[in-house]
Amino acid sequence: QHTLEGNRDHTAVIHICLSIYLDRYFQTLYSSLTVVVLVHLSSDVDVIDCSVPQYNNRLDTPLPDVPFVRNLSAEQKKLKEKEKGSWTQLTKEEKLALYRLTHELSYAEMRQGSKEWMTVLGGIFIFLGFTGLLVWWQRVYVYGDVPHTLSEESVAQQTQRMIDMRVNPVHGFSHKWDYEKKQWK
């Protein structure tokens, strides 16, 4: 009977934990679904249909498929109506405004280029300067002195020892030494 009550207590604890877990799970699921539904129902989201031609400024195709301004204001609509008449009645500013409705940039403005190269070059110089400072810091504070084995005396001693030991006599180091004349071949 004692073990039966223990099993009931254990089962009750499992039920409580499971109900807490499921409650949290469904609250999270409900809040996630609410966000998804609200995002899909909001009219502020601008979805671009990629099957429809898009406006772009390109030098190889200076005449875009669609006009730059799609949603015309009342003033722009009046100007478009005036465009249907004689162009001699349009002022230079109105002609320019009509051009800007269909094109964001003129061909000359597209060819003008940008000053982005200055930013890129500045970034490169900053990176190189930082790298130089890092190399200098490592030479001063990280690296030790040059090993004594790299001095001219030590290199000469190592070379003489390799000659004396006849290192790699067929095609290597000792092959280039004339042992009778005691000089390099």
TrEMBL record:
Its main location: mitochondrion. The keyword Ion transport does not apply. Keywords: Membrane, Mitochondrion, Mitochondrion inner membrane, Transmembrane, Transmembrane helix. The keyword Mitochondrion applies. Pathway: Energy metabolism; oxidative phosphorylation. One of its GO terms (biological process) is mitochondrial electron transport, cytochrome c to oxygen. Gene3D superfamilies: Cytochrome c oxidase subunit IV (1.10.442.10). Pfam families: COX4. CDD domains: Cyt_c_Oxidase_IV (cd00922). GO terms for cellular component: mitochondrial inner membrane; respiratory chain complex IV. It is found in: Mitochondrion inner membrane. The chain crosses the membrane at residues 117-137. It is a single-pass membrane protein. InterPro entries: Cyt_c_oxidase_su4, Cyt_c_oxidase_su4_fam, Cyt_c_oxidase_su4_sf. PANTHER family: CYTOCHROME C OXIDASE SUBUNIT 4, CYTOCHROME C OXIDASE SUBUNIT IV. Component of the cytochrome c oxidase, the last enzyme in the mitochondrial electron transport chain which drives oxidative phosphorylation. Belongs to the cytochrome c oxidase IV family. Component of the cytochrome c oxidase (complex IV, CIV), a multisubunit enzyme composed of 14 subunits. The complex is composed of a catalytic core of 3 subunits MT-CO1, MT-CO2 and MT-CO3, encoded in the mitochondrial DNA, and 11 supernumerary subunits COX4I, COX5A, COX5B, COX6A, COX6B, COX6C, COX7A, COX7B, COX7C, COX8 and NDUFA4, which are encoded in the nuclear genome. This is Cytochrome c oxidase subunit 4.
